[in-house]
C-alpha cells in the first residue's frame, strides 16, 4: 500500500492520522504561572505543552491573544516558578548589549548575544502595532516568543521575527518592546482582551509635497486625513488637515509613533495635544476613549486575502467627500497595507458592496462574512470606484 499510495495509508488501507507540532519559546513573567509568548507560536494550536529548563512539563492554557501586536499570554499550573522582570524598553540605546534566550531549531535554553542595532523600527509588516528594537544577536526559527534580555537581567523585548533571505540567521532580528508587551499582557490577564485608546481619527504620513502644501518646516508629525463624527478628536475641535506634532508631552515624529502612543493610553485620561493648523501651532485637550469593537474589527486582521485591508462605515460626510451615490451601500476602504494580498488591487476610497456575492451594508456585516472565509481561497468582490461598479477577484 505504501508503494502505490504513499505513507498516508497503513497496510490495511485506512487513512492514518498525522499530528503536526511546532516549537517556540516563552517567558515566565508572573509567579502565578503566566507565560508571555508570540501569538504566532500558539495560533491554531489544539494543545500547548510548556517545558521548563528543569525538565518539568505542563499543559498550557491560553489566557488571551493579540494578533495586532503578535503577543499571547498562556498560563501553567505550577509552583516555585522562576520569574524574570520586565525592564523599561524606552531606555534602550543603539549599541546596548543584549542576550537572546530561547529554543532555536529545537535546541532548548540556547543563549546568544549581540547589541541593539536600531530602535523604533516600524512598517516592517509583521504586526499592526510596531516599535521594534532591532538586534544582531543570533535569532533563528524557534526563538519566537523568547526573551531579549539586557545586561541587567531584565526582559527588554520578546523576540518575534528575523529578516532573512534563507530563513536562518543573517544578523537582523526584531523584538516586541517590553513596555508594549507589558501593557498588552496586563490587559489580557485582567480583561481577556486588549483595551486600546482611541482618538477617532484616520492619520497618514506627511510627504515632501504635503510639507510644501501645508507650509510646514519638516515632515515630522501625523496628518489627520479624517475625523470620526462624535469621536474624541471631533469633540475637542480637531479638524481634517490638522497635523498632530505632540501627544501627552511627547513628540510625534511619524504615524507609527502616534498610533502606538494612543493605543497604549488608558481610556478616560485627558491629554494635551499640540497640532499644526494654518501656519500656527495650537493646543487642545482631548479625552482618550476606548477603541470601539467595530473599529478594531475594521482594521483588517484576517487569515485570508483581505488581511491588511482596513474599512469603515460610510458616514454622511464620507458620502459627500467621495461623491458616493445614495444607491451605493457597503464599507469604504480607508487603508490597504503594503503587505496585504489585496495591495495593488483594492485602493483607498473603494467601496466594497459585496463579498462573494453577499451584500454588505456596514462593518458588522463585512466582519461577519470575511471572518468566515478560509485562507488560501479566492474572494470575489463587487466594488464601487470612480463612478462605476466592477467585480474584482483576490486570488489565492
Structure description:
A hairpin with a 2-residue loop joins strand 23 (351-355) and strand 24 (358-359). The protein is 16% helix and 34% strand. The model is unreliable at 1-16 (pLDDT under 50). The chain is built from nine helices and 26 strands. It folds into three domains: 89-191, Trypsin-like serine proteases (Thrombin, subunit H), CATH 2.40.10.10; 197-290, Roll (Pdz3 Domain), CATH 2.30.42; 294-394, Roll (Pdz3 Domain), CATH 2.30.42.
Count of the separate structural domains: 3
User: What is the assigned CATH homologous superfamily of the largest domain?
Assistant: Trypsin-like serine proteases
Alpha carbon gap, first and last residue: 34 Å
Classify the fold: give the CATH topology of the largest domain: Thrombin, subunit H
Shape: globular
- Could you tell me the radius of gyration in angstroms? 23 Å
Number of helices: 9
Give the DSSP E fraction (strand runs of 2 or more residues): 25-35%
Q: What's the CATH C level of the largest domain? A: Mainly Beta
Q: For the largest beta sheet, what order do the strands appear in spatially?
A: 7-8-9-12-11-10
> Which regions have little confidence, pLDDT < 50, spanning 5+ residues?
1-16
CATH architecture of the largest domain: Beta Barrel
Amino acid at each position: 500500500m505504501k508503494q502505490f499510495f504513499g505513507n498516508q495509508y497503513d497496510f490495511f488501507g485506512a487513512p492514518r492520522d498525522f499530528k503536526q507540532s511546532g516549537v517556540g519559546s516563552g517567558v515566565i513573567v508572573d509567579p502565578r504561572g503566566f507565560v508571555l509568548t508570540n501569538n504566532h507560536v500558539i495560533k491554531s494550536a489544539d494543545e500547548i505543552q510548556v517545558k521548563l529548563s528543569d525538565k518539568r512539563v505542563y499543559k498550557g492554557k491560553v489566557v488571551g491573544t493579540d494578533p495586532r501586536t503578535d503577543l499571547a499570554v498562556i498560563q501553567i499550573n505550577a509552583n516555585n516558578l522562576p520569574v524574570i522582570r520586565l525592564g523599561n524598553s524606552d531606555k534602550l540605546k543603539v549599541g546596548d548589549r543584549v542576550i537572546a534566550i530561547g529554543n532555536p531549531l529545537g535546541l532548548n535554553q540556547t543563549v546568544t548575544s549581540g547589541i541593539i542595532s536600531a530602535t523604533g523600527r516600524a512598517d516592517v509588516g509583521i504586526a499592526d502595532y510596531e516599535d521594534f528594537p532591532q538586534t544582531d544577536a543570533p535569532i533563528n526559527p524557534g526563538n519566537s516568543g523568547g526573551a531579549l534580555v539586557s545586561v541587567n537581567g531584565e526582559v527588554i523585548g520578546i523576540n518575534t521575527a528575523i529578516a532573512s533571505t534563507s530563513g536562518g540567521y543573517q544578523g537582523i532580528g526584531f523584538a516586541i518592546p517590553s513596555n508594549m508587551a507589558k501593557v498588552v499582557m496586563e490587559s489580557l490577564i485582567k480583561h481577556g482582551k486588549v483595551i486600546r485608546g482611541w482618538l477617532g481619527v484616520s492619520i497618514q504620513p506627511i510627504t515632501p509635497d504635503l510639507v510644501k502644501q501645508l507650509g510646514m518646516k519638516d515632515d515630522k508629525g501625523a496628518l489627520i486625513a479624517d475625523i470620526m463624527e462624535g469621536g474624541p478628536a471631533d469633540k475637542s475641535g480637531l479638524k481634517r488637515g490638522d497635523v498632530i506634532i505632540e501627544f501627552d508631552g511627547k513628540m510625534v515624529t511619524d504615524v507609527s509613533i502616534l498610533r502606538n502612543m494612543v493605543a497604549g493610553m488608558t481610556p478616560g485620561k485627558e491629554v494635551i495635544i499640540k497640532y499644526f493648523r494654518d501656519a500656527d501651532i495650537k493646543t487642545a485637550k482631548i479625552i482618550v476613549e476606548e477603541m470601539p469593537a467595530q473599529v478594531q474589527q475594521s482594521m483588517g486582521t484576517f487569515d485570508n486575502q483581505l488581511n491588511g485591508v482596513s474599512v469603515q462605515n460610510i458616514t454622511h460626510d464620507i458620502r459627500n467627500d467621495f461623491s458616493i451615490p445614495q444607491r451605493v451601500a457597503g464599507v469604504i476602504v480607508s487603508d490597504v497595507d503594503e503587505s496585504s494580498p489585496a495591495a495593488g488591487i483594492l485602493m483607498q476610497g473603494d467601496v466594497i458592496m459585496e463579498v462573494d456575492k453577499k451584500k454588505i451594508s456596514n462593518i458588522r456585516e463585512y466582519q461577519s462574512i470575511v471572518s468566515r472565509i478560509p485562507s488560501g481561497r479566492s474572494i470575489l468582490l463587487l466594488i464601487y470606484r470612480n463612478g462605476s461598479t466592477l467585480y474584482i477577484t483576490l486570488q489565492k
